[in-house]
Design goal:
434 Repressor (Amino-terminal Domain); mainly alpha; 4 helices
């Protein structure tokens, strides 16, 4: 499940809890929480629910903002290169 790792870290730090103390409250390992905060891993729904409970917020509050376009951040954008040598027609 996609999570906003930087947002989770900001909320945790704002709550005044260090990584180890927060992880213990959430029932997760500190290394796992650290990987989630650094966007190195996407948490399972249960882990995200534990983080949300420890932060007293909803799971949706911990998801990345997509401005209503959920697929925009997942799809690579194709770029037409009319100026370069690739695909140039003579």
């Amino acid at each position: 499940m996609k999570a906003d790792g930087q947002g989770i870290r900001k909320r945790r730090e704002t709550s005044g809890r260090g990584l180890r103390k927060f992880a213990a409250i959430a029932g997760l390992s500190a290394s796992h929480v650290s990987r989630i905060e650094r966007d190195l891993t996407e948490p399972q729904p249960e882990a995200l629910a534990r983080i949300a409970a420890a932060l007293a917020c909803s799971i949706e509050d911990l998801r990345p903002e997509t401005n209503g376009d959920d697929d925009a951040h997942r799809r690579p954008v194709a770029v037409d290169d009319d100026e370069g040598s690739r695909g140039a027609h003579s």
